[in-house]
Amino acid sequence: MGRFLAMGGYAAYVWPAYAVFFLVLGADVLATALRRRRVLRELAGRMARQAARRQPDVSP
Fold first, then answer.
1. pLDDT at position 60, please?
2. pTM
């Protein structure tokens, strides 16, 4: 197991590369989730404004 973790002497390059990859992957997933929430919130606001414009004014 130790030989595997040492990666033939290249562990100082391999493991940080894996770390950077997973950090970027996590950031990409997080950014996508946040963008989706923002777009859905904007879309709900647009639909509410559009529905409000279509309803007739019922003031006494």
1. 64
2. 0.68
